[in-house]
Write a structure and sequence with these properties.
- With about 400 residues, this protein is mainly α.
- The chain folds into 3 domains: about 60 residues, Ubiquitin-like (UB roll), CATH 3.10.20; about 70 residues, no CATH class; about 260 residues, Receptor-associated Protein (Up-down Bundle).
- The protein contains 17 helices and 3 strands.
- The protein is globular, with a radius of gyration of 29 Å.
Length: about 400
């Protein structure tokens, strides 16, 4: 049995918090429903004191952060879907979410949403007043649910859509944490050796007045450059970075950069799979929620992170608008692989295009995870080996110089 902390409400809107013991979250939901409560949030309690302190610390840090993240929007969507599914009105559900909201800025946003809804605006119109938080895709799905009278169902699909996107994003970030940490620690170690340790050896070798090996001369020259001209190197790196950043903001620069990313031999295939998974899931979710295909295609391009993909989807939109099928339009652009195109074509022929698009997304998200796992498994030993070679070269170069000074053959 595990201990769960819950936050729930009744039909009158009163908030209840407490602790329940159960095997899993579903059992907690069942217990709360038997008590006449509507569950809002359930999380497992951690008895370990260190975990508790860690959670409290992270909670304080995140509560201080002002920026509203995609996780905040996901939690809001999930909570609102639960309350609407329980039969509460939109304004009553928003009132409850305001009471349980923990982040100040999002709390203010919810209060503004409630004020606008109570003033006569629809939920989608109220959300439209906060474009920095809620995307056009999000708002159009809500609008489609309101038009079709199935807002609760659309909210459920929207929750699943956002959750899948967040899971994929979190998986990619967590997979890259260790390689980035490895490069950072290794790079800092090498810089410390070159900037602070080796200059002391340079003084010793200069006092001896004897010839030292070429490799040692190269290492000491690099150390001298880093020690005396670090400000020039740092300034040059900053200027190069700012120049590249400015160039990437131009349309020509972004097109060239995005084309390079998607065509590079190692990570290009992975980037393309991520874009395909994102596009098909977005398109399938929009169409399943009642958004017409042309409007859906127009919204889909906004979710793409690559300008080459955006241009391809603009071309697809124009062809579909002229009466061409989606599968044929995608095939002509050459972005989607044969398997995905055939699945989409089967979906068109069987009248199950939305379901087939979501299946394509599932397949490619799984492929992204598998491909990323293989790349990381190869990247980690390669990074360790590369850093080991660099450090080993520095150490051996210094040892060769020491042995040569003592006339000891190396």
């Amino acid at each position: 049995m595990s201990t769960f902390l819950y936050k729930a409400t009744d039909l009158a809107g009163t908030i209840f918090e407490g602790v329940l013991e159960a095997e899993d979250t579903r059992e907690v939901i069942g217990q709360l429903q038997a008590m006449g409560y509507i569950p809002i949030r359930i999380k497992q309690s951690k008895s370990d004191q260190f975990s508790k302190i860690q959670n409290d610390l992270s909670k304080d840090i995140f509560s201080m952060a002002k920026r509203i993240t995609s996780k905040d929007v996901l939690r809001f969507t999930q909570d609102l879907e639960v309350l609407l599914d329980a039969g509460l009105s939109v304004d009553r559900a928003l009132s409850i979410l305001i009471e349980v909201s923990e982040k100040t800025k999002f709390h203010d946003t919810l209060k503004d949403l409630l004020k606008n809804v109570e003033s006569g605006y629809s939920l989608s119109e109220a959300l439209e007043m906060h474009p920095a938080i809620f995307s056009k895709l999000y708002i159009n799905m809500i609008k489609a649910g309101e038009t079709g009278g199935v807002l609760g169902l659309v909210m459920d699909r929207l929750s699943i859509f956002l959750e899948n996107n967040q899971e994929l994003k979190d998986y990619i970030i967590s997979a890259l944490v260790y390689p980035i940490f490895l490069v950072f620690v290794g790079g800092v170690s090498i810089i410390i050796m070159l900037a602070f340790v080796l200059p002391k050896f340079s003084i010793i070798f200069a006092d001896m007045g004897q010839a030292i090996p070429l490799s040692t001369q190269l290492i000491l020259g690099l150390s001298d450059l880093l020690s005396n001209y670090w400000w020039l190197i740092l300034g040059g790196c900053c200027m190069i970075y700012m120049g590249l950043r400015y160039y990437r903001r131009t349309e020509t620069g972004r097109v060239k950069w995005d084309r390079y990313k998607i065509n590079q031999p190692i990570f290009g295939k992975l980037i393309k799979m991520i874009e395909i998974a994102r596009l098909t899931r977005t398109l399938g979710t929009l169409m399943k929620s009642g958004v017409p295909i042309l409007r859906a295609l127009n919204l889909v391009k906004e979710t793409a992170g690559n300008l080459i993909v955006v241009q391809s989807m603009e071309a697809v939109y124009g062809k579909v608008k002229e009466g061409e099928s989606l599968s044929r339009s995608l095939n002509e652009e050459g972005l989607f692989p044969a398997l995905a195109l055939n699945m989409i074509k089967v979906g068109e022929e069987t009248g199950r295009l939305e379901q087939m698009l979501l299946k394509v997304a599932d397949n490619y998200e799984k492929s992204v995870r598998n491909t990323l796992k293989r790349l990381i498994n190869l990247l980690e030993p390669a990074l360790i080996l590369s850093l080991g070679i660099i450090v080993g070269f520095i150490v051996i170069s210094m040892l060769m110089a020491v042995f040569s000074l003592n006339d000891v053959p190396f």
